[in-house]
Write a structure and sequence with these properties.
The structure is a single chain. The protein is α+β, with helices and mostly antiparallel strands. The protein folds into two domains: 37 residues; 53 residues, SH3 type barrels (Roll), CATH 2.30.30. Strand 2 and strand 3 form a beta hairpin. The radius of gyration is 30 Å and the shape is rod-shaped.
């Protein structure tokens, strides 16, 4: 019955390739860097510049959707006028955008 079962022979195993394992990992890391990490860093720098340039009189939109005019700025906080005789104090980091002048008056 040996003719029905073929014999299994060990195959020649090539020497371990040091780049065979590390090359795909390097490619994945480079892809993550250019698709995820680098754009996020650019966005953080742009937001830091926006917060740093915040000045009295700017009209801003917060992350919560509040539209107002900046009346005072300190190191970590800004005071927004959101209606006549109504001012709120917010953290400067919650400012998501500076809107064009006149946007707040038109609202």
């Amino acid at each position: 019955m040996d003719f029905l079962i073929s014999s299994a022979y060990a195959q020649d195993v090539p020497a371990a390739d040091p780049f065979g394992f590390f090359l795909p990992m390097i490619v994945i890391f480079v892809a993550f860097y250019f698709l995820l990490i680098r754009p996020q860093q650019k966005k953080q720098k742009a937001h830091a510049a926006l917060i740093g340039a915040l000045a009295t009189g700017d009209e801003v939109l917060t992350a919560g959707g509040v539209l107002g005019k900046v009346t005072a700025v300190s190191d970590h906080y800004a005071t927004l006028q959101i209606a006549e005789n109504v001012e709120i104090k917010i953290q400067k980091s919650t400012v998501s955008a500076v809107v064009p002048k006149g946007t707040f008056d038109a609202a």
